[in-house]
Give the backbone structure.
Amino acid sequence: MFKKLIFTGLFLSFASLTFAQDKKMEKKLEKATFGAGCFWCVEAVYELVEGVEYVESGYSGGHVEDPSYKQVVRGNTGHVEVARVHYDPSVISYEQLLEIHWHSHDPTTLNRQGNDVGEHYRSVIFFHNEEQK
């Protein structure tokens, strides 16, 4: 009898874990991509925001396919350091993410954010759909 109770308890525990994972997978996440200087700094800002599931750092907007960090910082690729934000629109809106973007850096400085200088540090927003545009 005791073994049956333990087995039943373990089974129900694993079943509830599966359902929790399935629920997480059901979330319809949207993307927003922002450049505001060093991508690690931008990533750090958005990782603290409720409704943001995860953030990826990378490059966008250039004419060289899959550039290296050295290529980008030399300034020959046209790329910008960006953070792609994957968020749950039922928790936070794109407009709210834009407000964070505007207030987390100085969008009026050309090719510079703080001590970071170069065209790859410029302020940009890449849209993913017509609504964001």
User: Anything to note?
Assistant: The longest helix spans residues 2-26. The chain has a mean pLDDT of 86. The radius of gyration is 20 Å.
